[in-house]
Amino acid sequence: MSERFIYLDNNATTPLLPEVADVMREIMGMPYGNPSSPHSVGYASRDLIETARGQVADLINTVPEHLVFTSCGSEANNQAILSALSASGLRRIVTSSVEHSSVKKLCENPEGIILTALPELKINSSKNHRVYNTTNIQFPGVDGRAMMGQLDNENVICSQTSACVSQIPEPSFVLIAMGLDAEEAFSSLRFSFSSLNTMEEAKEAAEKVIEIYKKLKSLFSY
Predict the structure, then answer these.
(1) From the centroid of its chain, how far is CA 211?
(2) pLDDT tens, 80-110?
(3) Cα 41 from chain centre
(4) What does each C-alpha distance from 54 to 32, 51, 58, 92, 161 come to in angstroms?
(5) Residues 69, 30: Cα–Cα separation, whole Å
(6) How far is CA 65 from CA 60, 149, 188, in A?
(7) Degrees (nearest 5) of the Cα angle 165, 170, 173?
(8) Terminal Cα-to-Cα distance of the chain (whole angstroms)
(9) How far is 171 from 159, CA to CA, in rounded Å?
(10) Can you spell out the DSSP letters for the chain?
(11) Topology classification of domain 119-220
(12) Model pLDDT for residues 23-76, shown as the tens digit of each residue
């Protein structure tokens, strides 16, 4: 690359100001420590972070407690949207066709598609601690095994429980341990993805889940 170039991609990432780079080099040369560690080196690291948090808060006229540092804009977008959904209890997201790719991907993931179309559904999981490739969804008012069979007929393979206990006609003991009753557990299905699945497959599966749930819900409501 030529020594001199005209950099016009600052929306992607911006070069550091020299004074910022100087401070970073100084801090990286200090004794390192995990800011959560209960010892003097950890306390020193935490003091540096909290000082920076306070300085940023002053710049934008807010309080430090309202600031969360993230690694990038994509992480920040995901955290903001998921936190808003969690706090409000809402399941529907209205967005535009010109949103940042991280927002579009969040709204287009299969779980998001299903919850947007069927807002009465419930995700069986902790809000903050989840296995990244798995979603377990409760479909009120229908029998999960019947829904699993209908999905199987449409070439969408999922499960109700782990394979080692799938032949036992009992609700998932994991869901029961999480606080669900037997009816809620029997109405739940587990969808787990691997790196071999494509986004196109996920979207197609989500649309079939929506279609079959609506059909079964109308049947079971009589």
Answers:
(1) 24
(2) 888 887 787 776 778 877 788 888 887 777 8
(3) 33
(4) 21, 5, 6, 34, 48
(5) 21
(6) 13, 49, 38
(7) 70
(8) 71
(9) 12
(10) --S------TTT--PPPHHHHHHHHHHHTSPP--TTSSSHHHHHHHHHHHHHHHHHHHHTTS-GGG----SSHHHHHHHHHHHHHHHH--------TTS-HHHHHHHHSHHHHHHHH-TT-EE-S-SS---TTEEEEE-TTS-HHHHHHHHHHTT---BSS-GGGTTS-S--HHHHHTT--HHHHHTEEEEE--TT--HHHHHHHHHHHHHHHHHHHHHHT-
(11) Aspartate Aminotransferase, domain 1 (3.90.1150)
(12) 999 988 887 788 888 888 888 989 999 999 999 999 999 999 999 999 888 889
- One-letter amino acid for residue 221 of the chain: S
Q: For position 165, what pLDDT does the model report?
A: 43
**Could you tell me the two tokens for 49?**
């972070």
Q: Is 155 exposed, middle or buried (0-12, 13-18, 19+ CB in 10 A)?
A: exposed
Q: How far apart (Å, rounded) are the C-alpha atoms in residues 104 and 108?
A: 6
Residue 147's nearest CA partner among 132, 158, 161 is: 158
